[in-house]
Amino acid sequence: MADTRDILIDWLRDAHAMERASVDNLEHQVDHLGAYPDLKLKYQEQIELTKRQTDRIDNQLKALGSDASTLKDTMLRIAGQAQALLAGISDDEVVKQAASTLAYENWEIANFRALAAAAEHENEPALKTLFEDMAREKADMAAWLSDRIPDLTRRYLDQRATG
């Protein structure tokens, strides 16, 4: 049976792969947001935040004597790219994709909180604080999206009615 440190490293690898997939997904979405400049700007900000979070996770893996899982990274990035490509087929997917991104952000918040709990169990206070901070950073994006989705829906419906 794996000890808790091995579980923590495995979860860190998952988080690393998910963050990289998130960057791929958001980068592709940004290309299709010309009619939504506020959403485009927020996604660009989230891309930079997520890249920094990926680097922080990578640094923690190295500090624990490990590295990212190439297999998980590849699988999740392919899945993220496929989702982004499907979303980019037409502009009418913007609202659905924003809702999907909100769900993804909430999943990441839960994951970072689990990582913080695992770090606390392993008596790694700096790592615990890191993941609590990352959960809060993701919570900011989730709150922003949650507030904006009704407006995005109205704007989309208005565009469809007049277009």
State the end-to-end CA separation. 60 Å
How would you name the CATH homologous superfamily? Answer: Ferritin, core subunit, four-helix bundle
Order of helices and strands: HHHHH
What is the count of β-strands?
0
Structural class: mainly alpha
Number of helices: 5
Helix content: over 70%
Q: Which geometry do the CA atoms define?
A: elongated
Supply Rg: 17 Å
CATH class: Mainly Alpha
Low-confidence stretches: none
Largest sheet data: none
Mean pLDDT: 83
The CATH topology comes to Ferritin
Q: What count of domains describes the coordinates?
A: 1
Strand content: under 5%
| Oligomeric description of these chains | single chain
Q: Could you say what the CATH architecture is?
A: Up-down Bundle
Description:
The structure is a single chain. With 163 residues, the chain is mainly α. It is 85% helix and 0% strand. The chain has a single domain, classed as Ferritin, core subunit, four-helix bundle (Ferritin), CATH 1.20.1260. The chain has helices at residues 4-30, 37-63, 70-87, 94-121, 125-162. Helix 1 packs antiparallel against helix 2 and helix 4 (94-121) packs antiparallel against helix 5 (125-162). It starts with a helix and ends with a helix.
